[in-house]
Amino acid sequence: MQTIKKISAALLLGVAIMAPAATEAVTLGHTISTVSEIINGLIPIVLAIAVLVFFWGLAMYMFNTGNLEKRTEGINIMFMGIIAIFVMVSIWGIIRILQQTFKVDQAKPIVPDKIERRFN
């Protein structure tokens, strides 16, 4: 039951944050641009959290020299932090390679044209 409450609270917070952006989104291009800005703002935050997780594991490893269980837990946390950083930087590199391959510049994003419906 507690998990459902936490998920509901997180969902409600997400909707509250996204509501002003959704009301301003008039076209598909503007909606894509808004979502892109939100994701681009979250990427450094998530990367910083992964680095903090790594250093948290390092601190657990260093400060618990006598306790083997805590040291092992610290090693596992450091390992998960390194994996998270590796995955994020790898995805970042793959996206950069795709941008260079398809000649997509960050200043000129590919945004679909308006969808026009013709009635005959």
Give a short summary of the structure.
By secondary structure, the chain is mostly helical.
Summarize the topology.
Blueprint: H1 2-24, H2 28-63, H3 68-101
Helix pairs in contact: 2-3
Describe the model.
This protein is an all-alpha fold and 120 residues long. It has one domain. Helices cover 78% and strands 0% of the residues. It is built from 3 helices and no strands. It is flat. The model has no long low-confidence stretch (mean pLDDT 81).
Structural class: mainly alpha
Q: How many strands?
A: 0
Measured distance between first and last alpha carbons? 55 Å
Quaternary: single chain
Largest sheet: none
| Element-by-element helix/strand order | HHH
List the total number of helices. 3
Taking all Cα atoms into account, the compactness measure Rg is: 21 Å
Shape estimate: flat
What integer is the average pLDDT? 81
Strand content: under 5%
The unreliable regions are none
Please indicate the count of domains. Answer: 1
User: How much helix is in the residues?
Assistant: over 70%
